Amino acid sequence: MRRRPAGAHLWAVALGLSLGLALPAAARAATVEVEVDGVEPGGGPVLVALCQGGLSGAACAQGDRAETVRGGAVVTFEGVTPGLYAVAAFQDTNRSGQLDRTALGLPLEPYGFSGEVGRRARPDFREAAFALREPGALIRVRLARALPRR
């Protein structure tokens, strides 16, 4: 059996640490704080989802709700593995727990996404995405209505 020189394994561990390879997942967790503005006063809670890989319900598995305070809301996700994410949010004005839509699929409640997303149509994940690194990120989302309030 061939013996390694003393200290060789320490060098390998140090190299792995510098490349981020030897850290356990828990040590690489980050925090995502989402500030939501454009909230309608007295219009209900804000629901925020952290999405990975797409903007469908299945891709937006992490979610939370926040009550509104002075036209805004804040939701914090902790223990998030660094990677590529997007945020989707809406104000649940009727407290149904879901984004209400017209028969054509247009949102009836205020909604928004992270990134530089316009209001022309449902955005592509890449347009709303941001790279999450340690220790975390502050993401701002502005809610708006697709249609005038009824």
Q: How does this model look, in words?
A:
The chain is mainly beta and 150 residues long. It has a single domain, classed as Immunoglobulin-like, CATH 2.60.40. It is built from two helices and eight strands. The strands form two sheets. Strands 2, 3, 5, 6 and 7 form a five-stranded antiparallel sheet that branches. The N terminus is likely disordered.
What brief labels describe this structure?
mainly beta, three-stranded mixed sheet, single chain, five-stranded antiparallel sheet, disordered N terminus, 150 residues, 2 helices, 8 strands, Immunoglobulin-like
Terminal Cα span: 79 Å
* Strand percentage: 25-35%
Oligomer: single chain
Regarding CATH, which class? Mainly Beta
Rg over C-alpha atoms, rounded to the nearest angstrom: 20 Å
| E-strand count | 8
Question: So how many helices?
Answer: 2
Which class of secondary structure composition applies to the elements?
mainly beta
The CATH topology is given as Immunoglobulin-like
Query: Strand count, sense and closure of the main sheet?
Result: 5 strands, antiparallel
Mean pLDDT: 82
Q: Assign a percent range to the helix content.
A: 10-25%
